[in-house]
Amino acid sequence: MGNGVQHALEQLKTTGVRITPQRHAILTYLMEAMNHPTADDIYRALEPQFPSMSVATVYNNLKMFMEAGMVRELTYGDNSSRFDANVSDHYHVICQECGKIEDFSYPSLHEVEHQAETSTGFKVKSLRMELYGICECCQAKHVAAGLN
């Protein structure tokens, strides 16, 4: 577990949020899962540890993390919300077939924000960039099925 989780928990404490074992587990899972899990994914992963936890509990905690600015909700692809604990500037490439989302970073996109500000006078607050394609796993299935 990286110090990212500790730092995030400290940050929450300053906003007056109680850190319950469930919250700790949800946040840790989110920060370590690189696959942008859905609330269901998180629930299924943690249920053995917290038999009394419900999907609603997971949702409510995710909402709270979002309000604290620690988690982002990604609504696209396969219509189910996925959650991302990486709130730094980064971009997503999304598989059109299985809905898998991967992060990538590309510094010169900051120039795009700057350019937009210069030409429109806007103050750019955030940037969401999505690329769509077919992941390696789905490509391999195509090859196996003789599709191209």
TrEMBL record:
Binds 1 zinc ion per subunit. The keyword Transcription applies. Pfam families: FUR. It is found in: Cytoplasm. It comes from the Bacteria. Its cofactor is Zn(2+). Keywords: Cytoplasm, DNA-binding, Manganese, Metal-binding, Repressor, Transcription, Transcription regulation, Zinc. The keyword Transcription regulation applies. One of its GO terms (cellular component) is cytoplasm. GO terms for molecular function: DNA-binding transcription factor activity; transcription cis-regulatory region binding; zinc ion binding. GO terms for biological process: negative regulation of DNA-templated transcription; regulation of secondary metabolite biosynthetic process. Signal peptide: none annotated. InterPro entries: FUR, Fur_C, WH-like_DNA-bd_sf, WH_DNA-bd_sf. Belongs to the Fur family. This is Peroxide-responsive transcriptional repressor PerR. It comes from Paenibacillus spiritus.
